[in-house]
Fold this protein.
Amino acid sequence: MAMASFARRKAYLLVSRKGSASSSDAFKYSYSLTNFSRGFASGSDENDVVIIGGGPGGYVAAIKAAQLGLKTTCIEKRGALGGTCLNVGCIPSKALLHSSHMYHEAIHSFANHGVKFPSVEVDLPAMMAQKDKAVSNLTRGIEGLFKKNKVTYVKGYGKFISPSEVSVEGLEGENTVVKGKHIIVATGSDVKSLPGITIDEKRIVSSTGALALTEIPKKLVVIGAGYIGLEMGSVWGRLGSEVTVVEFASDIVPTMDGEIRKHFQRSLEKQKMKFMLKTKVVGVNTSGDGVKLTIEPAAGGEQTTLEADVVLVSAGRTPFTAGLGLDKIGVETDKVGRILVNERFVSNVPGVYAIGDVIPGPMLAHKAEEDGVACVEFIAGKHGHVDYDKVPGVVYTHPEVASVGKTEEQVKELGIAYRVGKFPFLANSRAKAIDDAEGIVKIVADKETDKILGVHIMAPNAGELIHEAVLAINYDASSEDIARVCHAHPTMSEALKEAAMATYDKPIHI
């Protein structure tokens, strides 16, 4: 029944934008897709699809387009595929999170399991080398996938000279022009700067610099309590830094479910991470050996000074759309630089598309990948589908926090009658067996229909556990549906089953 329901849904992506596609003359155009059958190749140098940007959205779109029989070229300015995520984001940060967690466990937990060492020390160069090796292997892997799927890879900075032509300045200074019937902008995002703060990637760093520090700072100040700031704060905190997080808002990770957020903040505080909420940075002094920050309450008030060896600026990201020649060809953007697209990812300029961080929606690598697949499916005359309300999010600290769907606060604001079911990992046998039982599963479901509206997990492996919930929400499952599925014992996933039981009836083990 759920399968039939899913199949009946509209097979298109809904992108938030001011007004609808049908309300603007700029979007009233049609496409001839008769030439885009599998195996089609132009007799000229023109591509069917050209993609500017080789990050998660761009490279996945390129591979999928080629698999659909479209002649495809991908342009990447970095000289290495994978974008921010693979080179200076998701992947290297997860490598350091894992390595630093192993060090932390060796000091604080191994003895409890009967494993003892005379001493444990950090070899930071070796840790960084392992991170770099992981990145290098994966970037080379994507190049191999390009060759396998016959995607043309052009290294250089691309910008529009017409709606069907991209000028590419190569890494060696050479210039070429790449032509395409359909051009996709997949240039991702960049670090958002803060007024009066200059990032030098030495003492004042972005996430890029925080991934490449050559020594462990004694004091680290993180500006911004979002996903990236808390992850990088965790890395250096585990390795010995005194970490203070300064956040303008009243809460850490404001998009997180409120109850889960409270558990999460307490967990981080137990790990000696300090928080200064409702606080803003009004001045930075780097004249001495370290950094002196002048801070004050967000609402105004007495100023104080905060000292650090390194300051991490982690106040969000901004779409990378400047310098692409979008204005030259008349592509519409909003006030923050996002490209406005319709439900098929098409801008107001026919033949020019955009995906990932440069359009509205969550700035997540996996969202960009789904955008890329759906976009080229539309180009090939097929149906694409992405639902931004069902995209999971994960904070890769320890414990991890993962969620999908709506928070309890959002459901309440919508006026939906709901039920909540919860189950703590303290009552989960696998978590107790491995002595890692901090966390909870929370399910929010419709009171009348029992349909799952949101799932929120704090657990050692929440980022893996959440995908059962993602599947359930995508297929309109009820909490009883999950509760009646046999889960292997002993596993952490049984906590999700018990939370589902608690939502529609009663749990067994608490």
Q: What stands out?
A: The domain at 204-315 is CATH 3.50.50.60 (FAD/NAD(P)-binding domain). Residues 124-149 form the longest helix (26 residues). The first strand starts at residue 47 and ends at 52.
